[in-house]
Amino acid sequence: MVTDIEEEEKEVEIYRIRKLLQNLKKIRGQHTALVSFYIPSGYSIIQALQQIQQEQFTAENIKSRVNRKNVTDALEKTAQHLKLFKVTPPHGLIVFCGNVSEIESIQNIKIWSLEPPQPLTIKLYRCDQEFITQPLEDIVSVKDIYGLIVIDNNEATIGILKGGSYSVLKTKESGYHGKHRAGGQSARRYERLIEEQSHNFKKFIGDSATQIFLPMLKELKGIIIGGPGATKLEFIDEGGMHHELKKKIIAVKDISYTDESGIRELIQVSESDLKEVQMVRQQRMMARFMLGLVKDTEPVSYGEEAKKHLDRGVVDILLLSEEIGDEEIDRLYEIAKKSKTRVELMPTTYEEGFQLYHTFGGVGAILRYRVSE
Prior knowledge:
This protein is of the alpha+beta class and 373 residues long. It has helices at residues 4-24, 45-59, 65-82, 134-140, 184-213, 231-238, 243-246, 260-269, 278-295, 303-311, 326-338, 351-360, and strands spanning 34-39, 93-99, 109-114, 124-128, 145-151, 155-162, 165-173, 220-227, 249-254, 300-302, 315-321, 342-346, 363-367. The strands form 3 sheets. A 5-stranded mixed sheet has the order 7-6-5-8-9, sandwiched between helices.
């Protein structure tokens, strides 16, 4: 059974890996001299070392003297690093190594090594102009995705919720408004036209949802549909969404808006259906923090004061913005571990995370008890 502490440590580890990936993806080698080596769980470290030694032998045939030296030096540094391990770590090992200098005549060999957060199943060696990061990106990508659809007679918006952020993927206006008030046959024809337009609009949104969500069916944990009135229910019946996606509908909610603000409202009213989603959990934490600050419902602090409370071991939940920097995050996280303080790392991609960084200096704390200064 995974504990809250283990889950928190995993989230911090994934954050660090994502920051590393951002840096690695910016690096371009002068030639094919950047080494990426993925050693799967259970694979012999001796065999991995033997492969690197074989690659060193092959690299001696590279015609370009500069490229040959960069490749052989990177492989030697990789080999020396592998010798530090008696066995392959339980989840496998990933090594990136190469000359990261932007000037061809200057050598700057760097190496990065990590055990992935879950068992590595592929074995891959590549020497290229860029590091091969996609397998690692796949490991740390958010696996659970929720589809979001808000719709009424005039407008519909389709979005997705992944981990700490949502994205709006499509917005469409129906193009028809109200009903004809005149009597007679012309009114009945107009009514039929309106009904046809309404049906076509729902069908368009259903087809769009199918195009967007069906390719991600395995990762799609659920679909939530919202809107004011009955149109959302009619959409489920008439929209023609793929039958496999209809099975994924987990909630239908009454909300007021059908634009991007409707997507945000749908997330808020679906809290009980989205308990485990990072963004929803962190919104709940920020709501607690703000209530404590404004109405004094519980003791809270922020900024430098929050850091002092963390040093004293009285912080129950520490809210940290990802924007305060890796070194500061690592420093505060290590202090938090000592007092078993829960840490929430919050991106600025949604309103609460943006507010934490720009209004409260990126650090907020919910305290275990009131303290006298």
